[in-house]
Amino acid sequence: MPDGAAVARAGGRTDRYADAIESSLEIAGERGGDLTARVYAVLFAREPQLYGLFSRDADDAIKGEMLAKVIEAIVDFVGERRYADYLIEAEAANHEAYEVPRAAFAAFFRIVADVVREACGADWTRAMDAAWSETLTDLDAYVENRLCEVVGS
Q1: CB-based burial, 18-42: b 16+ in 10 Å, e otherwise
Q2: Tens digit of each residue's pLDDT (9 = 90 or more) over 65-114
Q3: If DSSP codes are grouped into helix, strand and coil, which group holds residue 47?
Q4: Distance (Å, rounded) from C-alpha 49 to C-alpha 76?
Q5: Topology classification of domain 4-150
Q6: Is 31 within 8 Å of 37 (Cβ atoms)?
């Protein structure tokens, strides 16, 4: 695997978006605390058919762990990309086994971004907006194109 500098030279997001994404996540965490409840409230409002998949998660531990993995994957995806690609591929296949539509899987990244923006409030910057916008476009394309190759359509 290439190091972060190699990824940056190859057109990765290390230098360009990582700082803005990480900064937005830090501010959201400081202002909003644990974002799990809000992220999943938005998810279930947009994708109500997914609610039943969490019927055994009474204490939100599974939701919290999933959100933590998604945030780690986003940070790695915009950074060194040591494992995000593989994690996203594996989780897409795992979610398909639960009959989660690929579009709903991909939409979760956008939901996280929306909740982070909401939590940042007035501290949300143009740099954060640009970083998230480009990253979400990249993630959408990755899920749509790359996962079609790996998982199959």
Answers
A1: bebbbbbbebbeeebeebbebbbeb
A2: 999 999 999 999 999 889 898 888 888 878 878 888 888 888 999 999 99
A3: coil
A4: 29
A5: Globin-like (1.10.490)
A6: no
Instruction: Show the DSSP H helices in the chain as ranges.
Output: 4-9, 14-32, 36-46, 61-78, 84-97, 102-120, 126-141, 147-150
Q: What is the pTM of this model?
A: 0.84
Structure tokens at 22: 């990480």
The answer to whether 151 touches 89, Cβ cutoff 8 Å, is yes
User: Using a CB cutoff of 8 Å and minimum separation of 24, what contacts does 47-54 make?
Assistant: 47/104, 47/107, 50/100, 50/104, 53/98, 53/100
- Strand, coil or helix: 13: coil
